[in-house]
Amino acid sequence: MTATHGPAGDAETGAPTLADRARLVVTSAPISQREFADRIGMDPTALSKALRGSRRLKEHEVEAIAQVGKVSLRYLRTGTGRPPVSRESAAGPGPRRRADALDAEARRAQILEATARLIARRGFHKVRVADIARACGTSTGTVHYHFPTKDDALRAALLYYAERFHTRLEAEFRTAGSTVEKLRRLIEVQLPAGEEDVEEWSVWVQSWNEAILDPTLRPGQSTVYARWRQIVLDLVRACRREGMAAGADPEALTGRFTGMVDGLAIQVLAGTGGMSTARMRELLLDAFEPHITLR
After folding, report:
1. Are the beta carbons of 158 and 207 closer than 8 angstroms?
2. For each of the chain's 295 residues, which pLDDT tens digit applies?
3. pTM to 2 decimals?
4. What is the DSSP letter of 249?
5. Cα distance between the two ends of the chain
6. d(CA 94, CA 248)
7. Between vectors from CA 168 to CA 243 and to CA 203, what angle results, nearest 5°?
8. Is the link from the previous residue into 148 a cis peptide, with omega within 30 of 0?
9. How many whole angstroms from its chain centre is CA 171?
10. How many Å apart are CA 38 and CA 204, to the nearest integer?
11. How far is C-alpha 60 from the chain's CA centre?
């Protein structure tokens, strides 16, 4: 392996490490590193750290990298076996390859958006690959190329809506004047009020259901949830630094709030308990009392 393929290797022996081989697999794939992270159910930042060797890859992550990167587990773990074919080796002329890559990126984005929307509106088990292909005006083979299984499609749909949620939330936070105002904005963004909000919640609840029955879906689902929970926890801790919630446990407050958000949203979506988005908003505004007042 040449130095251009990955990090320098083991500091003592100079031998390539698992991180080196994983990095070669990822950089050789005909997709971006962010897309690779999506397909294996990892946070893009966590994958970057792992490829740099500053984060240890978990066993299920190694297995996912091998599957998506089309290499053997033996190669990743030991370096023996067939290495990945690099993008440059597999590609044709430069300009043509760049055009093909852009076309592939656009097609994948189209398929991802259609898949997420169909799952949100019809339900995971009622969406067929043929439905996705029809919505995109393409073949089932093309859909399978980007999402080999329906589970892959559900993972991608969850990440799609999670990213859309965080983009919207970041925009709200940029104009918020205080930590308390950020908590108020957080509540508004979480309410299943409009069509897009309901779609996000629909996919989120369906991913929960599937993760209960299929443990392989849990790592990706847990990663998405941990990111959202950390936002709440960081805001609660910021409130403490500002003199609020002095005697409160930030972890407990965060757990209470996130549990209320999830439970109330499910009631709104299912139409149970007479719950409405207006009532949900009122209950969440009181969720941090008496430690943090949002009214």
Report:
1. yes
2. 333 333 445 444 456 789 889 988 988 888 888 888 878 888 888 898 898 888 899 888 898 898 888 888 888 888 887 888 755 444 444 444 444 444 677 788 888 888 889 999 999 899 999 999 898 888 888 888 888 888 888 788 888 888 888 888 999 999 999 999 999 999 999 999 988 899 989 988 998 998 999 898 888 889 999 999 999 999 999 999 999 988 899 999 999 999 999 999 999 999 998 999 999 999 999 999 999 999 9
3. 0.62
4. -
5. 61
6. 59
7. 110
8. no
9. 19
10. 16
11. 16
Instruction: Measure the CA–CA gap between 114 and 180, rounded to whole angstroms.
Output: 36
Tally: H helices and E strands in the chain: 15, 0
- CA-based nearest residue to 66, from 15, 6, 34, 25: 25
CA 12 to each of CA 16, 49, 177, 295: distance values in angstroms, whole numbers, following the listed order: 11, 20, 51, 59
